[in-house]
C-alpha cells in the first residue's frame, strides 16, 4: 500500500496555525501533501475547512465528530473514584480501552495510511483511540508553553505518578503529553521553561518557524484565517493609541466579564494619550463581547491571535493578557501580562496554580 505523507489532528485554531507553520517550513515541492483533521469537540471552525482546502497547503481536510466520555454512560461508570488505588486502576484500564474503542465510528480517516501522524492535545479521545488501535503518533503541545503552568499529565495523575506512567508505557492506561506507549515524541516550544521532565520531549521553537516565513507565506496565513481582513483593518485604522485586550475562557461568564472590565479599567488607558480599546475574544470564549462590551471595538474570535503578527504595518500601543503567552507577539510596543497573582483575586488559586499542586 502506498503510504500518504502527513496528517494533523487539530482541536483549535492555534493547532491549525502551528500545522500551517510546519507545512510552510517544508521545501516547496513537499507542500500540499498533508491531510488536516479538525475536531469539532471544543471548537466551531466555521468555514475554515473550505479555506484550508483552497489555500494549497493540504490535499484533504476532514471534520472529526470526536466524542467526549460523557456521551457514553457505559464508559462513565468506570470514571468514578472507588476510594482504592487498585480498584481505581482496574476501572481505569477498562475505561481506557472503552473510550478508545468508542471513537471508531466517528474517525473520518484510516490513520494507518499515513507515515507521520501529528496530534495536538492527545489528552482528548483521539489519544485513547490511537493507543487502542496501537498506532504510533507524534504529540504536540496544546498551547504555547502551556505545560509550563499546567502540566496536565502530572496534574491529572497526582499520586503514584511513577506507577501510572509505567502502566501507560504498557498501554494498560493512557497518559497524555508523551507518556503513552504509542506516542513517539512530544513536541514543545521551549523545554527550558517546563518544570518537570519527560523523556519524549523534543523542542521546536514556534518563533523559529514563524521567522522562516516569507512575505508570501504570511499573506497566505492572513487569507486563510481572516476572511474579513478589510473590516479588521478598518477597525484598526483609528489613528490613535490602540490597546488590545486578549480574552480567555476564564471562570463563569459573570466573573469573566468582571475580569476583563477590570483589565480595561486598570490598563486600558495610555497616560497622556487618547486610547482606543479593541478586544480579541479567544475562539473558545463564549461571552458575548459585542453586547457586554459594546462601547469597544470587538474583533472576530475565529482566528488565532498569532496571525496578527503577519498583518503588515499593524502596531498596538499596548496588549493586555491574563494567561495567554505573549512572548511571541511582535505587534505590540508594550505588553501587560497579569498571570496567576492577578487571577488569585477572582477564583481559588488551586484552580489556576495547577503545577503547584503536583
Report the oligomer: single chain
Distance between the termini: 46 Å
- In the sheet with the most strands, the strands line up as 3-2-1-4-5-6-7
Kindly give the count of domains.
Answer: 2
Structural class: alpha/beta
Radius of gyration: 21 Å
β-sheet strand percentage: 15-25%
Instruction: Give the helix level as a range of percent.
Output: 25-40%
Number of helical stretches of at least 4 residues:
13
CATH architecture of the largest domain: 3-Layer(aba) Sandwich
Describe the structure in your own words:
It is a single chain. This protein has 358 residues and is an alpha/beta fold. It has 2 domains: 4-209, 3-Layer(aba) Sandwich (Rossmann fold); 228-357, 3-Layer(aba) Sandwich (Rossmann fold), CATH 3.40.50.11110. The chain has 13 helices and 12 strands. It has helices at 13-24, 48-54, 73-76, 85-102, 125-132, 152-156, 161-169, 206-211, 215-225, 229-236, 253-267, 289-292, 339-343, and strands at residues 4-10, 34-39, 58-64, 114-120, 137-140, 183-188, 201-203, 241-246, 275-280, 297-298, 318-321, 335-337. A 7-stranded parallel sheet has the order 3-2-1-4-5-6-7, sandwiched between helices. Strands 10-9-8-11-12 form a 5-stranded parallel sheet, covered by helices on one side. The longest helix has 18 residues, at 85-102. The chain is globular, with a radius of gyration of 21 Å.
Amino acid at each position: 500500500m502506498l503510504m500518504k505523507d502527513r496528517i494533523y489532528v487539530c482541536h483549535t485554531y492555534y493547532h491549525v496555525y502551528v500545522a500551517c507553520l510546519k507545512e510552510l517550513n517544508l521545501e516547496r515541492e513537499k507542500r500540499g501533501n498533508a491531510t488536516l483533521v479538525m475536531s469539532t469537540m471544543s471548537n466551531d471552525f466555521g468555514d475554515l475547512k473550505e479555506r484550508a482546502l483552497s489555500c494549497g497547503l493540504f490535499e484533504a481536510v476532514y471534520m472529526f465528530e470526536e466524542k467526549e466520555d460523557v456521551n457514553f454512560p457505559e464508559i462513565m461508570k468506570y470514571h468514578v473514584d472507588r476510594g482504592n488505588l487498585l480498584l481505581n486502576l482496574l476501572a481505569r484500564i477498562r475505561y481506557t480501552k472503552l473510550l478508545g474503542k468508542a471513537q471508531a465510528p466517528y474517525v473520518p480517516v484510516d490513520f494507518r495510511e499515513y507515515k507521520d501522524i501529528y496530534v495536538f492535545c492527545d489528552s482528548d479521545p483521539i489519544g485513547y483511540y490511537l493507543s487502542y488501535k496501537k498506532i504510533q503518533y507524534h504529540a504536540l503541545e496544546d498551547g504555547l508553553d502551556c505545560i509550563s503552568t499546567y502540566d496536565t499529565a502530572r496534574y491529572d495523575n497526582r499520586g503514584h505518578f511513577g506507577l501510572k506512567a509505567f502502566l501507560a508505557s504498557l498501554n494498560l492506561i493512557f497518559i497524555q503529553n508523551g507518556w503513552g506507549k504509542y506516542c513517539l515524541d512530544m513536541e514543545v516550544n521551549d523545554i527550558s521553561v517546563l518544570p518537570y521532565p519527560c523523556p519524549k520531549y523534543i523542542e521546536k521553537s514556534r518563533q523559529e518557524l514563524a521567522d522562516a516565513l516569507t512575505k508570501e507565506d504570511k499573506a497566505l496565513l492572513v487569507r486563510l484565517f481572516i476572511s474579513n481582513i478589510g473590516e479588521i483593518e478598518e477597525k484598526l485604522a483609528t489613528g490613535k493609541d490602540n490597546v488590545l485586550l486578549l480574552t480567555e475562557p476564564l471562570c463563569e461568564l459573570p466573573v469573566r466579564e468582571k475580569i476583563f472590565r477590570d483589565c480595561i479599567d486598570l490598563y486600558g488607558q495610555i497616560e497622556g494619550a487618547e486610547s482606543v480599546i479593541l478586544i480579541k475574544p479567544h475562539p473558545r470564549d463564549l461571552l458575548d463581547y459585542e453586547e457586554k462590551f459594546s462601547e469597544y471595538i470587538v474583533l472576530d474570535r475565529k482566528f488565532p491571535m498569532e496571525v496578527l503578527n503577519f498583518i503588515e504595518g499593524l502596531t498596538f500601543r499596548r496588549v493586555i493578557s491574563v494567561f495567554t503567552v505573549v512572548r511571541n507577539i511582535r505587534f505590540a510596543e508594550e505588553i501587560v501580562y497579569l498571570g496567576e497573582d492577578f487571577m488569585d483575586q477572582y477564583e481559588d488559586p488551586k484552580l489556576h496554580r495547577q503545577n503547584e499542586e503536583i
